[in-house]
Every structure is written in C-alpha cells, then in structure tokens.
Amino acid sequence: MELRVNIDYEQILGLIYQLPKRDIEKLTITLQSEILSKKPIKSLQKLILNAPTWSDSDYHDYQKARSHINKSRIA
Asked: How far is CA 16 from CA 38, 42, 61, 75, in A?
C-alpha cells in the first residue's frame, strides 16, 4: 500500500516544529546520515576505481619529458 500526501515545505516545517526536541534531534541525525550515504560518493568511488592508469613506462616517459621541460625554462 502506498500513501501519497501533497504538502509544501512550510507545512513540513510546521509539523517538525511541533515535535519534541529529542525527536527533532533524531530527525536531524537521520537526515544527515541519509545525505551522506547517497550515491554521488559511491559513484565518485566507482569513477576513481575504474579510471585509467599509467603503466610504469608511461610514467617514466612523463617524468623524463617533465624534467626536460623544467630544465628548458628560463628561470
């Protein structure tokens, strides 16, 4: 069974302010944990884990090129 209620933000705030302080604190903690556990963090982790990486020879070539560029600059 699904119940849908159309209430606006101001009505929600009014209901929240009617709660005892302890329940407001519990609600705050619950909402914060829900926000922190949402998908963007998981998708960022997935992106990082699946990102392309350099092989050792690629990194060595980059270091040589970077060193050459740094030496060729007029200081």
From this structure: 23, 30, 60, 63
- Per-residue pLDDT tens for 26-70? 999 988 888 777 666 667 777 788 888 888 999 999 999 998 888
Q: Residue 16: CB partners within 8 Å, gap ≥ 6?
A: 24, 27
C-alpha–C-alpha distance, residues 71 and 61, integer Å:
15
The pTM (predicted TM-score) of the whole model is 0.43
Containing 37, the helix (H) or strand (E) segment is none
| Alpha carbon separation from 26 to 20, 21, 29, 31, 75 (Å, rounded) | 10, 9, 5, 9, 60
By the 8 A CB rule, do 16 and 27 touch? Answer: yes
